[in-house]
Amino acid sequence: MVLLIDGNNNASRAFYGYPEMQDVDGNDIRCLYGVLDTIRKCIEIIQDHHLLDRDVLHVVVAWDNGIPAFRKSMYPAYKNKEISIGEQQDKEKRKEAMVSAINQFCFSNMRDWFPILHIVGEQAEGDDVISVVCKQVLERVVIVSTDTDFYQLIDERVYVLNPKTEKLITSEQLKMSPRSVLEMKLLMGDPSDNLPGAKGVGEISAQKLVEEFRTIENMLAYYNLDVSSEHRHYNLLKKVADSATYLRDVYYVVDLQQSYYIPGLWESVYSHLTQFAPAVMDTYYLHALLLKRKWVQALMGFNASVRPFSLISNANIEVIS
């Protein structure tokens, strides 16, 4: 099993959720602490769900490193929300703490003590890295994030674990297709990404429309029929039609399937997965140490054995890349 951590999502939650903490050099370690503590909690949750196969577990953390050019070209306002000076200062402070955590994880000797694979995308978001990892590994994957975008990736092998609610979402619980998740996201929008959605369409309205018409293109096609004015959801269909240009512009911005086509990302992630020889964690031992907040022992002293990731073949990479 692969525990796939949304690094920026969980580090950001830790930054705002924990009191300020510093190491001996004065570095803010809230993000570092938060990601480690998230791993501890998630190990406990997946054990409770009996998901571990003989306690074999790989941990991968994906981090943002820029925004893919295609998203900015398709929708320049993407993640470009105007904020106050105070919010900007807070954002810079959070970014500094995250960079410190990434440096500790990826570029210090901590990576030799704690065999977790950290992948920093090149001109890619952590979401893109996670999407590609899910496609490349053959093992079961638990994505750890509060971001509902990842519901697009859920299937019989991929689950999403919300570390805030501690709820594990499976394909049976989701009760809608990945395509429907995408259509809902487009209609509802996402303020955190500066995506307004279709004006006047909320979650309940979006769900009604997707359940009946399945796709936005179907909604627009029906609206253009002469009989559409007689439909019970005519007013909602009109709101969708009024936002048609926006919805078409952002479709590929929101679609995580597009992550496969970001130049170099597919090859880069595959290289990380093949070159990294991860230690499979003795999860009971690791969890016990983390539960007691014995960070140094947890980082340096747990039992581990080497086992590579199970990956798709190179032939599939050449087709997709």
Describe the 3D structure:
Helices cover 50% and strands 10% of the residues. It is built from 16 helices and 8 strands. A 6-stranded mixed sheet has the order 3-2-1-4-5-6, with helices on both faces. It has a two-stranded antiparallel sheet with strand order 7-8. It is globular. Mean pLDDT is 82; it is low at 295-306 and 317-321.
Write the layout of secondary structure elements.
Elements: E1 2-6, H1 7-17, H2 30-48, E2 58-63, H3 69-74, H4 85-107, H5 110-113, E3 117-120, H6 126-136, E4 141-144, E5 158-162, E6 167-169, H7 171-174, H8 178-188, H9 203-213, H10 216-223, H11 234-242, H12 244-254, H13 265-275, E7 279-281, H14 283-291, H15 295-300, E8 304-306, H16 314-320
Parallel strand pairs: 1-2, 1-4, 2-3, 4-5
Antiparallel strand pairs: 5-6, 7-8
Helix pairs in contact: 1-2, 1-4, 2-14, 6-13, 8-9, 8-12, 10-11
